[in-house]
């Protein structure tokens, strides 16, 4: 079996997986512009070291991890305040409620969220605020679906007690 030129392989990977990656990123960002930027940034990184693609065993998983990490880098550069101010997480959750309900449960949610790890907060925001399904969250955070379901279940129980 002859070895394919890595640059040709990258182009084929791009053409084959572009639509899937774009839909995945639009689901995360709600922006086709950001999704396109992330894909371009990710494939630009690959072009710097093209031989890396010849070593990939599970292409789709590798691509998802790559664009996810590129997206995280993008947000860290563009919106560093999201990673510094944990009160924004509370705001994102509370914004789904009417002002009256928000005022009532604000302190309780702050207490609950304050006890969560950053990963648990990310899972809850992805599930409850953005509406991602368990598999999407699993791909995004590289955590087993069963663990994500368990965390969401525990949080929902806590939130029901708050209401």
Give an account of the 3D structure.
This protein is an all-alpha fold and 163 residues long. Helix content is 78%, strand content 0%. The chain contains nine helices and no strands. 17% of the residues are buried.
Give the termini separation: 63 Å
Q: Name the beta content range.
A: under 5%
The helix-and-strand class reads mainly alpha
Runs with pLDDT <50, length 5+?
A: 85-98
Largest sheet: none
Radius of gyration: 19 Å
**On the 0-100 scale, what is the average pLDDT?**
76
Counting DSSP H or I runs of 4 or more residues, the number of helices is 9
Give the helices and strands as they follow along the chain: HHHHHHHHH
Q: Give the tally of β-strands.
A: 0
Give the overall silhouette. Answer: elongated
Helix-residue proportion: over 70%
Search tags:
mainly alpha, 0% strand
Entry summary:
By secondary structure, this protein is mostly helical.
Describe how the helices and strands are arranged.
Elements: H1 6-29, H2 32-48, H3 59-78, H4 81-84, H5 87-94, H6 99-114, H7 118-129, H8 134-141, H9 145-162
């Amino acid at each position: 079996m002859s070895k394919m030129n890595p640059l040709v392989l990258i182009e084929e990977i791009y053409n084959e997986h572009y639509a899937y990656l774009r839909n995945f990123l639009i689901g995360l960002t709600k922006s086709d512009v950001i999704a396109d930027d992330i894909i371009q940034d990710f494939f630009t990184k690959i072009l710097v070291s093209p031989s890396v693609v010849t070593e990939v065993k599970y292409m789709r998983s590798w691509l998802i991890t790559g664009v996810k990490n590129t997206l995280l880098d993008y947000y860290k550069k563009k919106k560093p305040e999201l990673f510094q101010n944990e009160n924004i997480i509370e705001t994102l959750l509370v914004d789904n409620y009417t002002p009256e309900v928000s005022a009532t449960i604000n302190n309780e949610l702050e207490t609950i969220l304050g006890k969560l790890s950053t990963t648990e907060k990310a899972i809850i925001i992805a599930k409850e605020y953005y509406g991602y399904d368990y598999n999407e969250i699993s791909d995004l955070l590289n955590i087993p679906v069963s663990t994500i379901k368990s965390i969401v279940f525990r949080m929902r129980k806590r939130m029901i007690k708050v209401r």
